[in-house]
Amino acid sequence: MKLNMLFEKNGPTEINKGFYWANIIIICIFALLIFRLYQLQIWQGDYFKNLAENNRLRIQEIPAPRGIIYDRQGFPLVESFPSFDVSLFRQDVRDVGPTVHLLSKALSMSPEKLWARLDGSKNLATAHPIKIKTNISREELAAIETRRLELPGVMVDMVIRRNYPYQNLAAHLIGYLGEISQEELEKEEYSNHKIGYMIGKYGIEQKFELELMGEPGGRQIEVNALGRKVRVLGYVEPNPGNNLFLTLDLELQKVAEEAMAGKKGALVAMDPQNGDILAMVSKPDFNPNFFARGVSPEYWRYLITNPARPLQNRATQGQYPPGSVYKIITAIAALEEGLISPTTTFHCPGSFSFGNREYLCWRKEGHGQVNLRRAIVESCDVYFYNLGLKLGVDRLAKYALGLGLGRITGFPLGNEKPGLIPTSSWKMKRWGIPWQAGENLSIAIGQGYNLVTPLQIACTLSAMANGGRYYRPRILKFVQAPHGEILQEFYPRQEKTLNISPETIRLINEALWGVVNSPGGTGSRARVEGFDVAGKTGTAQVIQRREGRGEYQEAEYKDHAWFACFAPLHNPQITVVVLVEHGGHGGAAAAPIARQVLAAYQGLKKKVPEQIRIAQRPEGEISEKR
Amino acid sequence: MFDRRLFLHIDWTLIFIVVIISILGILSIYSATYPHQGNTKYLYLRQIYWVILGLALLFLVISFDYHLFIRLAYPFFTICLLLLLLVILWGKLSSGSQRWLHLGFFSFQPSELTKLALILALTRFFTREGEEAEYTLRDLFMALLFLGLPALLVFKQPDLGTAVLMVIISISLFGFIGFPLKAWLLLGGGAAVLTPFLWQFLKEYQKKRLLTFINPDLDPLKTGYHIIQSKIAVGSGSFWGKGFLKGTQSQLHFIPEQHTDFIFSVFAEEWGFVGCLFLLFLMLLLISKGLKIALASRDRAGTLLAVGITAMIFWQVFINIGMVLGIVPVVGIPLPLFSYGGTSVITTMVGVGLLINIEMRRFLLSR
Fold first, then answer.
1. pLDDT of residue B158
2. Which of A287, A304, A465, B213 could disulfide-link to B329, CB 3.0 to 4.6 Å?
3. What total of structural domains would you count in chain A?
4. Residues A261 and A237 in one domain
5. ipTM value
6. Within a domain: A412
């Protein structure tokens, strides 16, 4: 009666129908739940009780082989070798104390470290083994095997471990592996990783960890009370990681490493037509193999306390004053602004008076009357002091930024540094001092606040070489699935077109050719017969040279030597930038290194024509970009 | 404001049931996280705080007329949608989990609150004034819009369980509204078309879970293993159970998420068939009380609201326990008042508060 009143709409029948069905559904579902409980707990209760009492289900992980990193021609840069790991099934260990004691002796690990391992794995399901030590030696393996019976729950598995056959070669690019840390474990991207995994910590190994790692497989096994396998209940095949094909050229990299051996500095070789990194060297370097086997504290201490900072990739993270290499920028700015023409001359008596200071040319006796081409070829400082005064800092900065300096190039690896292109407002903000007119002179020849990385110079020079197309440097060509299918391709990426007239580019490039090939050119030591090299030397002062004082001879005050070049002048195929820290003169210290790389490249080209190289790309259909 | 006479009508039995279930839950969390070390050290303590806070909110909720909540349904619903969006954006930014909103001192899951908001909004929509005598397809379409927005956002998080739950709660409500037959046919047809479409949007692990449920051999190492271990835990409890803190399955951490989604397996192992029957009995009591309140409500708004809340509790009980018993695929849904989790406890407590609210105001004639 009451209901009729209350349900104004649709009458009570609809609602009542609803309650009718609701009751039926609820009763059925509770009956189902109770039936299922009865089935599990009463009918099969003893069976499950038995299973639980000696819960003997184990999961044994089968590691996935890590993807291989290849050079542009398909030569592997890394490989894998078998090694042995020790792990522990906590549940099978009756007495943890003695086991830890025995293990610490057999594996020469401190008991504290072992306990820390066990504590760190508390949240892991008991059926998962805890990794105790990776890559044990033959002696340690023997020590464990002979005490097998006293060590229940201790397991030795064979795993595949990373090896870098070329040792230090391209270490800053390839990177190294290390055991995953607690913080990394908590990251979302590593949600499929477990404690004890070796993951990429640097370079390509880190950047493309998720591609390279693959998917571990495993066995679900039932074991008896003694922990011995009774039967395998389930098996999952591991999925190997994906392979990476780099733009790097192994042969050229070898030559570059060789040429830079014993030096401190960086070398970048790039294909100016598409931004491909052909070689990249940073010295001093490190041996990633020392990490693959678990880095020793001594080696780690050496790496991080070494004042030369071997872990730094100088090609992308080293910021240096560009020295005379920067004259290219100054020349472009002056031409584009219409301040000079190719025939404009200035007189160089060996120094330039401005304010109450004398600004020296590197050549004390002076260059006499010089035009732009000769000023570049012979690297006349006084000529560029004049341009610096005409241009001023902010106009020069506009061109430097437009040419790709002062910001990162977009290289995907490591923490790339942007360098620094000063402006007057920057100085005011940073130092609270207005820009001094005299500083226009210093920055015009690449001294002062200017900072660039070798990679930036390579990108900018490449854009000049190819007529104005500025490419983002490319290191990874494509990702390939283990069965050969190409999963993801990375294409050359033109970031922008330089806003510079073709006439200026042609003029500058020709002058750069003169630097190497004209008489009196500062870069003659980079000359390669039949390979029209064009380049610019640079000698960057580490500290200001006093008037009348000679060059500093102490190693840490010696100038940085630059050489940046491309070849051949027409249709350039390779850009090489060399920086030798405290190497002295660019023409003497850096140009010969560049020459070795250029000559080797020319030799390699003769051996393997480009067409064949391209055809060597592994077959497989190209899938859509992921 | 609060009428003194109303106090006499508070349903203390219902509150008693809720408290007993919560205590059993806390005991199970205590056991599941025993010995109390590491990350899970204080979880049972925190659950106690959440239950106390939940009870406080329950009493707060009953001191206002439930029509007020229905009137505020749309703004509340909108806020929940914004929070869901925020969670997704936030997750994108921090590339972390996307279910939680971290507010410094505590984190909460907007998707839990959104269930209540959805129920309130649907109630409001189907009790609006000046409506026609019959519901049309247009009404169905509007209702689906109410459901679709939050469900898709939650689905995107990705929280498949809660999204499915929202759909089931809404459909349960539709059963009480009285749609014409063709509306139901359309609903069925739409679902049939949409399912394969939505399947593509599932994450790999979600697909795997669903497929593993159909065929456990597909993934014997992860989900399949979890289902087996959960069944072993429940089954080994037998008739009387192993006793408090004596469950070997849970003490050895064989069960995944054993203080949240799989908490029932811990309880079942330690308290056995008898304990499970008792807990199911309490849950059934709670649900049937909810239905009774819906039936006795003095207006249609109260009925629909009570039905919605009861449906929410009922389906969560079924999906969660069914999952632990291996008869429902593994989707992350907490057991109301039982699983560890502040937002879940508070949502359920507020829901129960609304139920009591509807019941005690059925005698009042004026609004």
1. 75
2. B213
3. 2
4. no
5. 0.91
6. yes
Phi then psi for residue B99, to 5 deg, are -95, -20
For residue A496, give the CATH number of its domain. Answer: 3.40.710.10
With an 8 Å Cβ cutoff, is A49 touching chain B? yes
Of residues B303 and B253, the one with the higher pLDDT is: B303
State which residues form the domain around A407: 250-292+312-612
Q: Which residues of A touch B37 (CB under 8 A)?
A: 122
pLDDT per residue over B151-207, tens digit each?
Answer: 999 888 878 889 999 999 999 998 888 787 888 888 888 888 888 888 877 777 777
Q: Is residue B365 part of a domain?
A: no
For residues A496 and B296, what is the distance between their CA atoms, to the nearest angstrom? 73
Whether residues A318 and A359 share a domain: the answer is: yes
**pLDDT at site B105:** 52
What pLDDT is stored for residue B205 in this prediction? 72
A273 lies in the same domain as A370: yes
Residue that has been written with the tokens 């078309």 in this structure: B193
> Which of A238-242, A538-542, B222-226 shows the lowest mean pLDDT across its residues?
B222-226
Residue from A3, A8, A41 whose CB has the most chain B CBs within 10 Å, to mutate: A41
Domain C-terminal end among A220, A244, A268: A244
| Block residue for tokens 């490319």 | A474
Nearest chain A Cα distance for residue B256, angstroms: 8
- Cβ–Cβ below 8 Å for A33 and B272: no
- Confidence class for position A198, pLDDT limits 50, 70, 90: confident
Do A229 and A278 lie in a common domain?
Answer: no
HEC string for A417-478: CCCECCCHHHHHHHHCCCCCHHHHHHHHCCCCCCEECHHHHHHHHHHHHCCCEEEECECEEE
Minimal CA separation from A80 to chain B, in Å: 26
Is residue A324 annotated as part of the catalytic site, yes or no? yes
Total structural domains in chain B? 1
Long-range CB contacts (within 8 A, 24+) of B32-36: B32/B250, B32/B258, B32/B259, B32/B263, B32/B266, B33/B259, B34/B245, B34/B251
Strands A560-567 and A574-580: antiparallel
For all residues of chain B together, what is the average pLDDT?
85
**Structural domain harbouring B168:** 4-360
Whether B97 shows a pLDDT value over 80: the answer reads no
* A18 or A598, higher pLDDT: A598
**Pair B290, B306: CB distance under 8 Å:** yes
Domain for residue A281, yes or no? yes
Does a structural domain hold residue A83? Answer: yes
Cross-chain Cβ contact A14/B224 below 8 Å: no
**Domain at A177, CATH number:** 3.90.1310.10
Compute the nearest-CA separation of B364 from chain A (Å).
13
Same domain flag for A225 and A278: no
pLDDT the model gives residue A620: 36
Cross-chain residue pair B314–A37, CB shorter than 8 Å? no
Rounded CA separation B62/B23 (Å): 22
What's the mean pLDDT in B345-366?
A: 87
- Model pTM? 0.61
CA distance A159 to chain B (A): 19
Q: Is residue B367 part of a domain?
A: no
Does residue B271 fall inside a structural domain?
Answer: yes
Span of A122-126, A437-441, B133-137, B290-294 with lowest mean pLDDT: A122-126
Around Cβ A80, how many Cβ atoms within 10 Å? 17
Residue A30, chain B, CB below 8 Å: the answer is: yes
Note whether residue A144 is domain-resident. Answer: yes
Q: Say if B251 falls within a structural domain.
A: yes
- Number of Cβ pairs < 8 A linking chain A and chain B: 152
Residue whose C-alpha is closest to residue A454's, from A581, A601, A307:
A581
Q: Which residue of B has its CA nearest to A47?
A: B236
- Determine contact: A111 vs chain B, CB below 8 A: no
Q: Is A500 exposed, middle or buried (0-12, 13-18, 19+ CB in 10 A)?
A: buried
Write down the catalytic residue from A324, A379, A442, A462.
Answer: A324
Cβ-based contacts of B232 with chain A (< 8 Å): 48, 51-52, 55
Put simply, whether A237 touches B (Cβ < 8 Å) is no
Gyration radius of chain A over CA positions:
33
